[in-house]
Write the structure tokens for this entry.
Amino acid sequence: MNWNWEFAAEALPILLHGFVNTLIATVIGTVIAAILGLILAVAIRGLPRWINWLVRLLVAFIRNTPLVVQLMFVYFAFSGIPGLVDVPALVIGFIVIGVHYSTYMSESYRAGIDSVPPGQHEAATALSLPPVRKFTAIILPQALRATIPSLGNYAVAMFKDTPFLFAISVVELVTAAKQFGGSTFAYTEAFTLAGIIFLAASYPTSLLIQRLDKRLATY
Amino acid sequence: MPPTENTPANPSASATPAIEFTDVEKSFGPTTVLKDLNFSVAPGERVTLIGPSGSGKTTILRLVMTLEELTGGYIFVDGKPLTFEERDGKRVELPKKRTREMTTRIGMVFQQFNLFPNMTVLENIIEAPVHVLGKSKSEASKEAKELLERVGLAEKADEHPTRLSGGQQQRVAIARALAMSPEILLLDEVTSALDPELVGDVLGVLRDIAETTDITMLLVTHEMQFARDVSHRVMMFDGGQVLEQGPPDQIFNNPQHDRTRSFLSSVL
């Protein structure tokens, strides 16, 4: 295995540039997934039966098709509609990733909400609390305690799924490494550095999630 | 000790009952727990429900608190329908909001305390006064601190419930129920989950409430001495029916039914 420090030094800024897209997609994707996931989890409980059924069908569809197919489908389907061609690929990317992961996160929220003991619902009813207040002040805070660790794990998984964005021409970290390797043949340097950058970002995040988990467990 | 003197031991029959059950029926799926149950509780009266497990005592409390759906008949609180009313000869469910207005007069203390673990003791107590009665936070907090003083836990206001002992948690739960100034207080086996040495503190607090307020109380308990001391009336249930009822002395000293006798000898 050859290692050339000059190539490595040359690759680093290009890779970091790609990494900015990776971060944008992950952060905004996580925000979308966390909000939409909660909405889905609540919606599946409270909606009339037929809408409920439709939402479940959509969730099943999104979960059972590969992310890369969804990315390409949305990217090419929407670029065919006049007036919509200007949407940047990165925006389509984080929306599709966010929606994809929201279907998983909704399941975590649902499990979290179900884990709140019935006595908590009963105490809220005994105090005559209105349903919205009961949910936001009592049920949700306790549900989140059980949900946040798995939301964090999904965020890390999402981070590692961002290379699929290459399919819709977004130059994120892995694509940047591939392009650099393609023009210099310094694949070893490019992908080693890409791996280190991924690790440097996701490992501290996992540790942060663990700490958050411990902190939430104290009350 | 006879029933305390601040309220009449035999409250006037002409007053509108605080709680009234009319032809109440409750079934869980195919299992009927209560059938054709009729009884009423006068304002200020303290009634203890006793009977073997499965006789429907706790279900009665849960029906009053609207924690269970009433499958037949009607419950009235202060003469007003709680969950169902009769309209044009039909049994109609009331809007949830109206039921909730009715339940603001009713408080309940549970066997398992059910404090909100994500809130401090003080936050637990002011939650409903602020968000249901619309009191200001400062007013509610001031009242909450007085209540904590009364149950002997003034210094625990800022603790989280999980840091308290079972007996302390239950006293907070009592304070939380009282913070709504309920007309009716439901006590569902409030000492059953406590270690024996903690039972006394909780019963002491309840005795104090019984002696100093005229809150109507409906209680399910296995503490027979306590039931004897604080209640005006004891109702013995068996198989979802009132087997017999009367002043505590009569029920405990001179029960009429064999079932009551054998039940009492098993718990006393």
